[in-house]
Amino acid sequence: MRVLVFQHIACEHPGIFRDFLKADGIQYDAVELDEGDTIPSLDGYDALWVMGGPMDVWEEDQHPWLIREKAAIREAVIQRKLPYFGLCLGHQLLASALGAEVGKMATPEVGLLGIELTEAGRKDPLMAGLPAQQTALQWHGAEVKVLPDGAVALASSPLCAIQAMRVGPHAYGLQYHVELTSRTVPEWGEVPAYACALDDTLGKGALPRLRDDAARLMPDFNRTARQLYDNFMNLSGAAVKAAQ
Fold it and tell me: Quick check: pTM over 0.85?
């Protein structure tokens, strides 16, 4: 397989998934859109992953490359039917690219918070082997307000009804973060927009506490990431074979 990755800030990369990809000998090409990288042709790629970032999906005036990115997402998901895996902003971009509403939340979610799989999520192959209730890292003030046509919600939280979704057979978006490593929280805490959101939500000086709490749960986070990775790769492999 060959995976194309869209990134929107250097510190929001595939995280622990990089280790899994390397161990499996899977090549991935990262495109840093905020740095002006050009989106390549999707020819030759077997999946598209879209990571998080500090911008919002509607900020096309400030970040005009969002227009091209959404077009590429539509091409990947609708025309080419490539397996898609989006995290946080990547989840929101999937919805926005397909014409669904994304907007500001009434109350942002920042910290280690609970999510629960929906009935559909409990049956979905991406979530196979995962508990119905999970703790995950949240760091967002926007949300998918309405599902795209043909989508189904796979997880929710008290503040965010669409924590995960599937569009069609193999395009997935997760609002929460599963790619964590020991460096994730410290590095994200250095991003001004993220630091402000953290202080506004959890109070001044919350970063060390969040870092320590995440470290204690890191084995669980990494097991969840491994399971999601294996499930997604099984789905992707089946999709690639079907297309051949």
Answer: yes
